[in-house]
Amino acid sequence: MASLQKISPFLWFNDNAEQAIQHYLSIFRHAKIISSTRCGDAGPGPKGALMTATFQLESVEFMALNGGPHFRFTEAISLLVRCESQNEVDYLWEQLGAGGQPGQCGWLKDKFGLSWQIVPVVLMELLQDRDPEKAARVMQAMLQMGKIDISRLQQAYNG
To answer: Per the structure, how many domains does the chain have?
Structure first.
């Protein structure tokens, strides 16, 4: 039996977990469904509808539930994606943001209401620079952005 991830994000959807999972699987290169359960004659949803699923995105395991309209996602929890390049930032911003809402400082809400942070790795490196003036300029530049622009961060860093 495969080793289970000790802690996994559990995502509560109203009735569209299957669509959300398929959407995420189409975006991330290393993604798969691990297992799923479907409703039977006793429900709780329509017979054959997805009830729960365990899936992986980039080696992180998630569980999803079609739990009904009782709870909704909020920005209090978000999924942070560390990006190696501007191309990756651009791709994920476009794909995850399609039908959703762009936010500030690399945050967006996808069409299912789940919040994501699309963050280039270089941002954290620049913000942690030993020169507080350089780090402050990077912070000020980032605060003006929706989608993070690495070249603008570098320009701010360089003064």
So the answer is: 2
- For residue 64, the cross-strand partners are 11, 53
Instruction: Select from 15, 23, 9 the least CA-distant residue to 110.
Output: 23
What is the pTM (predicted TM-score) of this model?
0.92
96-125 pLDDT per residue, tens: 999 999 999 999 999 999 999 999 999 999
DSSP state, residue 9: -
150/155 Cα distance (integer angstroms) = 9
Segments of 39-157 assigned E as strands = 50-57, 60-66, 78-83, 101-102, 107-109, 115-120
Number of residues assigned to the chain: 159
Q: Which of 148, 128, 12 is nearest to 88 (CA)?
A: 148
Supply the range of the domain harboring residue 117.
Answer: 73-159
CATH of the domain at 113: 3.10.180.10
